[in-house]
Amino acid sequence: MTMTTILEALMMICFGFSWPMNLVKNYQSRTAKSMSLPFILLLIAGYTAGISAKIMLGQMNWVLVIYLINLAMILANLCVYFRNRSLDKAGFIPAAA
């Protein structure tokens, strides 16, 4: 295991901890007003590019699994975005915190 692999994994783990927290916050808010579809799509494109690069370089290691988990969290956020946007269109007003 190289130092670059360890550092890449550390970066991905740090990002990885933020996505579930963001997902829960977005789900509980029940509104898409604080969410950005272009931002979510940009993240999906970035993770897809990173995964593609690892596959093309033949770097099929455990860091790739972290990329895939992070991508799954972002895709879940995309689903929550569309759910929340539907609630916004239906006129749902979230309860004040």
Indicate the radius of gyration in whole angstroms: 16 Å
Provide the residue-averaged pLDDT.
Answer: 91
The SSE order reads HHH
Q: Uncertain segments of ≥5 residues (pLDDT<50)?
A: none
Beta percentage is: under 5%
Helical content (DSSP H or I, runs of 4+): over 70%
Instruction: Please state the structural category.
Output: mainly alpha
Distance linking N and C termini:
46 Å
Question: What does the main sheet amount to?
Answer: none
Alpha plus pi helix count: 3
Structure report:
The chain is mostly helical and 97 residues long. The chain has a domain at 3-13 and 36-89. It is 77% helix and 0% strand. The mean pLDDT is 91.
Compact overview of the structure:
The protein is built from 3 helices and no strands. It is an all-alpha fold.
Helices, strands, pairings?
Blueprint: H1 3-29, H2 37-56, H3 62-89
Task: Give descriptors for this structure.
97 residues, mainly alpha, 3 helices, elongated
